Amino acid sequence: LAKTTQPISMDSYEGQEVNITCSHNNIATNDYITWYQQFPSQGPRFIIQGYKTKVTNEVASLFIPADRKSSTLSLPRVSLSDTAVYYCLVVIPGGKLIFGQGTELSVKP
Amino acid sequence: GAVVSQHPSWVICKSGTSVKIECRSLDFQATTMFWYRQFPKQSLMLMATSNEGSKATYEQGVEKDKFLINHASLTLSTLTVTSAHPEDSSFYICSARAGASSTDTQYFGPGTRLTVL
């Protein structure tokens, strides 16, 4: 049975780098892994997506090992406004979309 | 770009009434739209997937006669919660995808808070 696992919560301080890992033991071989940020009472906001190796954009990096059984979202130099819940979204064989349980990141001054 | 809107942003209704929620892709055509439900402190749960001009595909355990989905155009999908009950109170979020491939990015609406009294 396909399943994703993320840490429930993480604490960090302003200016630190934060890495959040999502484990996904059985995902479709040809689909992207996507990460979203969600603030309370808002819809998820797209952060980054990738297929393998490393992807970087203006807000984050995404590391995906060759076996694609996990992915790590890296947020450089977080600020208070990065306090939110972060979700990974994967596609499992058959095309079904699965959201991770979400990681509640708390950034402290 | 890639903006998705929802209306209303919140709604309160009496038990037994029906509520319609609209989801629009404002600057792109959405071949596929998704409807999710989210309870407090929980992840998003996919309810159904709809492709423009065809019937929605519902996830296991979601009553298709209770949650009516219409995707009549490439920019609009609606979710109607029929005969709503207090247990239907939740945060409903839609997303839209420009392409039909699962590799295309989903963009989410701001969500609709439904409270059934």
Walk me through the structure.
The complex is a heterodimer of chains A (109) and B (117). Chain A is mostly beta strands and 109 residues long. In chain A, 0% of the residues lie in helices and 52% in strands. In chain A, strands 2, 4, 5, 9, 10 and 11 form a 6-stranded mixed β-sheet that branches. Chain A starts with a strand and ends with a strand. In chain A, 34% of the residues are buried. The mean pLDDT of chain A is 92. By secondary structure, chain B is mainly β. In chain B, the strands form 2 sheets. In chain B, strands 2, 4, 5, 6, 9, 10 and 11 form a 7-stranded mixed β-sheet that branches. In chain B, strands 1-3-8-7 form a 4-stranded antiparallel β-sheet, with no helix packed on it. Chain B has strands spanning 4-7, 10-13, 19-25, 32-38, 45-51, 57-58, 67-73, 76-81, 90-97, 106-108, 112-116. The mean pLDDT of chain B is 92. Chain B contains no helices and 11 strands. At the A-B interface, β5 and β9 of A face β9 and β10 of B.
